[in-house]
Recover the amino acids of this structure.
């Protein structure tokens, strides 16, 4: 896997158009840090939409799985936590 650029929010402010162009044209995301901690990323809209579709499919898959196995029932909050944990 290719190393993603990592830049402070201060540096990104100085050349935001270039960071956005890199994400859009070259499909290279940039990780943004604040005080040395990774807090956000600039990705292409296509990558964001793919992630959202994947997340929705994954939630639906877990719901279908739970509905097929109707034991004691699982609160939706637990389903969401499990989905997010699987994506990490």
């Amino acid at each position: 896997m290719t190393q993603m650029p990592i830049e402070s929010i201060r540096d990104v402010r100085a050349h935001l158009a270039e960071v956005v162009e890199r994400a859009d044209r070259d499909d290279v995301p940039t990780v943004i840090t604040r005080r040395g901690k990774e807090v956000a990323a600039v990705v292409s809209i296509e990558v964001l939409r793919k992630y959202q579709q994947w997340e929705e499919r994954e939630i639906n898959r877990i719901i279908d799985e739970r509905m097929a196995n109707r034991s004691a029932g699982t609160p939706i909050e637990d389903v969401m936590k499990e989905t997010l944990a699987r994506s990490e």
